[in-house]
Structures are given as C-alpha cells and as structure tokens.
Amino acid sequence: MVFSGRPSGPPGRLFTAAGAGPQKAVFRGRPERATLPAMTTSPKSWSPVHGEPYRPVPYRPARIPAAESLARAAELRERMAERRTVRRFAPDPVPEQVVRDAIACAATAPSGAHQQPWTFVLVKDPEVRQRIRAAAEAEERLSYDGRLGEEWLTALRPLGTDEVKPHLTDAPHLIVVFQQRYWLGPDGARRKHYYVDESVGIAVGMLLSALHLSGLAALVHTPSPMGFLREELGRPVNEKAFAVIPVGYPAADCEVPDLVRKTLAQVLVEH
Ligand SMILES: Cc1cc2nc3c(=O)[nH]c(=O)nc-3n(C[C@H](O)[C@H](O)[C@H](O)COP(=O)(O)O)c2cc1C
Q1: Containing domain of residue 1, as a range?
Q2: CATH number of domain containing 182
Q3: Residues 21 and 55 in one domain
Q4: Contact at 8 Å (CB) between 165 and 224?
Q5: Binding site membership of 209 for ligand 1 (Cβ less than 6 Å)
Q6: Which of 29, 36, 48, 209 qualifies as a FRET site for 108, CA 20 to 30 Å off?
Q7: Rounded-to-integer distance, Cα 11 and Cα 55, Å
Q8: Model's pTM, two decimal places?
Q9: Which atom of ligand 1 is nearest to the CA of 201?
Q10: Atom of ligand 1 nearest to the CA of 222
Q11: Is 220 close to ligand 1, i.e. is its CB under 6 Å away?
C-alpha cells in the first residue's frame, strides 16, 4: 500500500522526510523552538506543552481523491482482518528497527491533554526476561488455579490459554507498556494526567496495527496483577504496567483459536 500524501503548508510544519522522496508527508507537531515565545512555566515542570499558550500552526495535509480513499480503506480492512493474536513465536530474528518504528508510530497516538502518558520498555536482557516469565507464570498459576473465578475461566476456555508463558522468553522482542498515572517531576512534584487508560489503550492499538502491517505478530499479555514489572524494570512509582507485548513471527506450527469476529452490521449502529 502506498500512502501518497504530499506535503503542503509552510516549511517547518509539514516537511518531506529525509530520503523518503517527495511523496511522504511528515507532520512536525510543533514549530521550531526559536519561534516560540518565552515559556510561562519551566519546560520540565510538565509535558513540554504544559502551561504554554495556544499556538496554532497550519495543518493542511494534501487531500487524496475519494476513489483512492475507498481503495485504501478496503485494503486496510482486509489486512487488519488478517491480524491474529499469536502465542507461539518462531525463533527467527526480527530487525529491531521494525519494532522501534512501530513504537514510534504508537507514540504518535492522541492523548488526553496531549500528555502522552506512556512508556514503552524494550526488554533485551535474557535474564530479566527469564525473571519476568517466572514472576508472570507464578501469578498466572494462581489465576488459573481459581483466583480468576469460574466466570472468567469460562470466558478464557475457548482461547486455550494456560499458565505457561513461553513467549516471555522465546519471542524475539518483548515490549512492556507502562501508563504514567500522573506526572512526576524530578523534585517529586505530581500533576494529574487525564484519560490515561484511554490514551494508552489507543497507543497500544496503534502499536499492534503498526506491528501487524509491518508483517509481525504480537500478543497483548496481561498477567494479573502486574505490579512486579515496575520493580523488575526499574520504572518510577508513577508508572503502572499496562501490557506485556511479545513480538515476532508466528512459529511454523502456530495455531490460533477458531474465533469469529462480530460483523460490521453487529457493531455499527446508524441513527
Ligand atoms: C486488554 C487485553 C488483554 C489481553 N490479555 C491477554 C492475556 O493475558 N493472555 C493472552 O493469551 N491473551 C490476552 N489477550 C488477547 C486476547 O485473548 C485476544 O485479543 C482475543 O482472544 C482475540 O483474538 P485475536 O486478537 O486473534 O483477534 C488480551 C487482549 C487484550 C485486548
């Protein structure tokens, strides 16, 4: 699929990515530092835009013809329908840059008050991954042994999951996503973050889409409770683990549950 939005508008706002050719538009969300008036608060006191006045910049991405929109949407719909959660990964290496680019895509997600309340930890140390697996499997064992309750276990039955989580050590890459429940300054000051669950959920959705469209498979794993991850990965107290996402290619003998998705007619209501 070729996305052929052309840059327009004043230079410095929308510009052509170096080496990407004239067809790729990149939106740089903020003007150059030098063009900004003086900050009203310390830039370190919040997210980079906290307390700054509204400073509009033109946003005029090139429109594409409706026929091309229709073709892109139809193709995307088909490709996204092919995404499946994978729990068994091939040992084949995956270029780390693909994962880094997918994380960069996720980090373009919209967020409440543009607070970008996410951290993506790419866990590379095999010993750390081994410890994460041991801790997660210990929690999962308790869960599957009854902590989840009959209703939850019944809901999980069609998925064929259990407490054994080989992907935590065996998938070529492992991303742990944290949500920043509040902003924590270097001096210990705190400020509220808004719509953290929604923002991080959207970012993870974009991460999964980027990984899938880049030809990779992933799993959203939520070993419950996930408190051990903050300590294991040395994250600050304002961060809470949101999901563990192993990434790679499906194993040669990978199988997935025979799930049926709701149809568009079942999920779309038109008033
Ligand atoms: C928030 C969330 C939490 C999930 N937690 C787990 C999990 O802990 N373990 C697991 O094997 N799958 C987990 N999944 C994956 C779902 O089981 C999977 O997305 C669902 O069965 C649909 O399958 P599909 O992704 O192939 O369409 C989770 C998915 C989401 C969105």
Answers
A1: 1-82
A2: 3.40.109.10
A3: yes
A4: no
A5: no
A6: 36
A7: 17
A8: 0.85
A9: 1
A10: 8
A11: yes
